[in-house]
Amino acid sequence: MMLKSFRSATAVAMTLLVGSVLSSCGDNGFTSGQGPAFTTGDANRRDGSYDPTVNGAYLTWDLPCDGTTDVPSTTPDGKPVLFIGGGDHVVSKADVANHPIIFSGKVCHASDSKRDIVLVVDVSGSMNDNDPRKGNSCARLRALDQVLQISASGKNNQFAIATFSSAVEVASSRFFDNAQDLYADLSANGNIADVVCAETSGTNYMAGFQEAWNRLSMGRPDGLKEVYFLSDGAPDRGKEGVDLASQLKAGGITIDGKHIKTTIATVMLGNGNDDILKNKIASKTQDGTVLHARADATNLAEILGQLAQNGIQTGYLNYRALTGGDQGNWQRVDLRPYLKDGGFILPSMAVNPSTVGTGIEIRLEYYDRTGQKYVVSGRLIWG
Fold first, then answer.
1. What's the distance, CA 149 to chain centroid?
2. Domains in the chain: boundaries
């Protein structure tokens, strides 16, 4: 499988630790203006080592999804790929002492399942403070655009929208497979910002979830059921909707005699109390990760877009030191912030081989949206 697009390893700062002997490292340690070069085999280094004075001097370990070795010799940003796939790989102590390690790779996607997606959007009065309309847009509308763009890239996906305040304000008449027709239906061919960027009265979660139930019941018997619920505050007393959400998650939707479970992802916009959304409504992934996030008007589109990604539901790179006796404790890095077009490249990791006895061990684990688990494991051993 050919690698495609990756997020730059320096785009997000992160510290990776195995005990106290692994630390983050990035391009700032190299002289500005140097190109991504790679050198081998001069009189001062054994053949196959790397020049620490150039920007490309990384030990890059690529983890393709399906065990293939057919990957490019360099990452898209010019870093040479030295190790491919799981299993044992050997590197000299001198090389690992002088060059940071980078993990890159590709996650496997589920077959293109049908997805019936309902977007439930709060238009209560407090949105005037947390997400005011500016012209013909607001953060909520940009977030819907993002989700529809991401999800529409898959086949057989369809969407519905409902807005709520003290009651349901507007809901699409059915599912649609594109934003243009969905927005036209929701706005009665008017201005979609008048619908999504509204600010009216109270906050009735129950009404929002009841309308999500109504829309999902129009879905397909073989389609995954998903709700993305956006609010900026705690619900009105008695309008929490927790029972409805629990029934949805447990398989309350029945189509053609088939009970179908619904995945619910929630976002709290602003500084509102998110206890109910996070702890009583949002679904959990296979490893217990809660499908909930906080956002503000500047990053709402990105946050909601990440929750709606068509790929893995949860995934981690687990790693530990090999000491020759009792091994180090497992630690992990969440893959999701680094995923782009199914590929990832993590910030670099510096290793001190004099305090990490024999090498490092990694285990890449993730679940796709159908619940299938993928595992790639390997060791980098000092030679």
1. 15
2. 22-109+313-382, 115-310
Residue 18 is predicted with a pLDDT of 27
Tell me the average pLDDT across 9-14: 22
Query: pLDDT tens digit string along 192-205?
Result: 999 999 999 899 99
Top-level CATH class of 115-310? alpha beta
pTM of the model: 0.64
CA distance 240 to 163: 16
Top pLDDT among 37 and 67 is at 67
Query: Tens of pLDDT along 109-138?
Result: 665 678 899 999 999 999 999 999 999 999
- Domain 22-109+313-382 CATH (choose: 1.10.8.60, 2.60.40.10, 1.10.10.10, 1.20.1530.20): 2.60.40.10
281-290 confidence digits (pLDDT tens): 999 887 788 8
Question: What is the distance between the alpha carbons of residues 288 and 291, in angstroms, rounded to a whole number?
Answer: 9
What pLDDT score does 106 carry? 84
